[in-house]
Amino acid sequence: ANVTVTDLEELQELLLVNIEKNKHLVTGSVRAEVLKWGEDVAEFQPPPDYILMADCIYYEESLEPLLKTLKDLTGPDTCVLCCYEQRTMGKNPEIERKYFELLQADFELEKIPLDKHDEEYRSEDIHIVNIHRKR
């Protein structure tokens, strides 16, 4: 696969370190790019086949920019896999609920059952959701 890993500007060095440490596993290409939610995504077009999200649901003020970026990045055939740890402290349950409520305006969601998760890494508080644009 040709992979683009993204994060904020201040984490690019860490992405490059991770790419270097894992280059022996790469059979395609991998590059690191800055992606700030809510901003222009033209350089990431055409829409990718897959978007893998991990632990992106945590700040209430980031929900709208995250959703805008997802809408701007995805095409009709893009598969988004969203993995997150369910947190029960503070405002986390409310933020999670709001995220999925807002997401359903433009996307269809399918929760991946726990028995379909990798046996070694599965946990009751780790969730994976398959997300597609509504047709």
From TrEMBL:
GO terms for biological process: methylation. This is Protein-lysine methyltransferase METTL21D. GO terms for molecular function: methyltransferase activity. PANTHER family: HEPATOCELLULAR CARCINOMA-ASSOCIATED ANTIGEN, PROTEIN N-LYSINE METHYLTRANSFERASE METTL21D. It comes from Tauraco erythrolophus (Red-crested turaco). Keywords: Methyltransferase, S-adenosyl-L-methionine, Transferase. It holds the Pfam family Methyltransf_16. The keyword Methyltransferase applies. GO terms for cellular component: cytosol; protein-containing complex.
